Amino acid sequence: MIFGRRSFTAMIGAAAFAFAQAPGQAAAFEPTKPIDFVIMAGAGGGADQIARFIQSVAEQKDLMPRPLIPNNKGGGSGAEALIALQGASDADHTILVTLNSFFTTPLRQTNLGIDIQTFTPVAMMGVDPFVLWVHKDSGITTFEEWVDAVKAADGEYVMGGTGKGQEDSLVITFMEQAFDLRIKYIPYDGGGAVAKDLAGKQIMASVNNPAEAKGFFAAGDFVPLLSFSDERMAGFPDVPTMKEKGHDFSYYNQRAVVGAPGMSDEAAAYYQSMFETIYNSEEWQGYMTSESLDPLWMDAGAQKEYWNTQVERHKELLAAMGE
Q1: How far, in Å, are 113, 158, 283, 284, 300 from residue 53 at the CA level?
Q2: Which of 192, 223, 245 is the last residue of a domain?
Q3: pLDDT digit string, tens, across residues 263-280
């Protein structure tokens, strides 16, 4: 089962790369107060890093008359953020940086009453692959050695990840099922805390995105064993993919921005144009390269289509893991 970048692109076709509005086009709306820039995860993770980088680009380029104010709401596997958006008192000044929990949390927590199709598409900024990491002190240097270590632990091997029933736990559950493993899973509010606890050896492995593990990898503390990308990653050319291990599976985290339900058309057009400008900037293009993100622009119409497809695909994946 493939949940990778190729499946995204095949689904949306050429429409995904058609810009909804030319950068700089005049809009009837401009923010009149700071924008609540909600982040669907805790501090230090990939979504948090991206939000704060986007904030810095917007400020450096003087793209907005009012600032973006990052606001971490990672509780309940992103439920806290979705509830905040749905109940926003000023939809025109509230936007959200999302992960794939944008799809999975409403599916798992139906009592929330969240319908993501009522949210306002703004921009798909790219997709982020997953990598299996261990601490250097484990002595593990290959995926095969890792599988042996997990089996030898006999159900006592501990991994951590962002949330429950969302990205990290889905990838870990896939490995459990594909290789007949038993893993204890600890949920965290964000990838930054996961990476910190792997560095402190409070957990034994993680499937952090590259940006979340980058500092520890650069310091020599983390060893990458496997990627869940369609092909080997340019930043980790010696790291094999899950596909190379005989399983046609890849999985990417969406890095997207959406607006609150009820956002006006004028405000939506303003943010779509502004984020398109950021996407095309030298700064964002360089960030994607340095942080191992794959580019995948989508306009508003393509995003709506993408949401439908990803909801159906995550229903299948959640069902396969017994959720």
Answers
A1: 31, 32, 9, 8, 22
A2: 245
A3: 999 999 999 999 999 999
